[in-house]
Amino acid sequence: MKRILLIATGGTIASRETGDGLAPGISAEGLLELVPGIEGKVSVRCAELLALDSTNMTPEHWLMIARCVRENFDKYDGFVITHGTDTLAYTAAALSYLIKGSSKPIVLTGAQKPIGFDSTDSKENLRDAFLCAASDMPGVSIVFDHKVILGTRAKKTRSKSFSAFESINYPDLGVIRDGELLRFIRQECGREPEFSDRLDTRVALLKLIPGTDREVLDFLFSRSAAVVIESYGVGGLPESGGFYECVGEWLRRGRFVVLTTQVENEGSDLGVYHVGHRLKRELGVMEAYDMTTEAVIAKLMWILAKTKDPAEVEKLFYTPVAMDMFPR
Ligand code: ASP
Known about the structure:
This protein is α/β, with parallel strands linked by helices.
């Protein structure tokens, strides 16, 4: 029988009504008791790691989760991590870098409605997650609403529906139908995972709006090692307002810049328009292409903990990890 470690971190799935809004209050054991039929098919042990609304998650918590998987890696065949949905895509991306090339399934799940509610997606998501964790599917994934999504490609795209997540610029890895996992894609994986235990959290995100003041960007650069700018369309910056000068100045001072887009699908292509061309050709900013913003942020934190050498950073950034971007 497959041995699975259930790592609980909180989220709606484990929440109760407090009179003051939903808050996590159900333990990992408590979750299992409410979904009979999991134990018996697999042998489950529980780790009560956190009890957080995922709004409260920080990169420190990502490191804690990665450490828990690392410490238990040899003892289990797979891992299920229950987590709030709000920042689940960030955690999934971060774990994909912190536990690179896992040969074992590391499956994140959660729910839009608490497990104790009459109408809930918690039980099915949990059952599906265990099914995937007991399979031979390698690497980090999110299992939600019967879909299996690669950890580096997930985004929460619905705030209320059960179909909360989508895979961005990449197909779903598979679906679960009638209790059976149908895999569309077989990912490659290394034999031994490469664990990391450090992140440089000095990464900021600016969502551009028409009329953004360059001083906002200056402020972010003054406090960060890297700034991700979510611009428009295939990417670019306004030609007036001093943005190019600002970016050029902070690049010279050793900061890193990644341009990405607010458009959910199809990614950036900075060379297309005049507003983006110079940024790439003359200033040498990096661009996200088809990566999600969640993955860009987690990847930068992971890279900057290893090196600050510009050539190295760029090389690592454009090297695909867990299919986070198509090779170029
Ligand atoms: N606020 C909750 C959380 O992210 C939402 C959820 O889990 O669905 O923890």
